[in-house]
Amino acid sequence: MQKVLKSPDLGNFNQVICVSNTGVQEIKKNIKKLFSDCSKDDLVLLFFSGHGLKTSEHEFFLATSETCKDDNDKLV
C-alpha cells in the first residue's frame, strides 16, 4: 500500500508514514501527529488495515492486538 500511495501515477502522496505491528500508544501518537501537523486545506489519508470492534451501543473502535473487551461491553 505504501508504494501505491507514493506512486505519482496512483496516490501521488508526497509523504507516507507506515506504522505496522506496534502498540496502541505508538499508533495513537502517530494518528495525533498526522492530524495536528496538517492545515485545513491539506488532503490527509489515514489508512488502517486491521480489525475493529462494535459495542452494544453501536460505537465502532479500531482494534489492536492489545485491545480487549471487558464484561461491561467497554473497550480498554
Describe this structure in words.
- This protein has helices at 2-6, 24-36, and strands at residues 51-54, 60-63.
- By secondary structure, it is of the alpha+beta class.
- β1 and β2 form a beta hairpin.
Brief digest:
The chain is of the alpha+beta class and 76 residues long.
The ordered string of helix (H) and strand (E) elements is: HHEE
What's the overall geometry? elongated
Number of helical segments with 4 or more residues? 2
- Average of the residue pLDDT scores: 86
Topology at a glance:
Blueprint: H1 2-6, H2 24-36, E1 51-54, E2 60-63
Antiparallel strand pairs: 1-2
Features:
76 residues; alpha+beta; two-stranded antiparallel ribbon; 2 strands; 24% helix; elongated
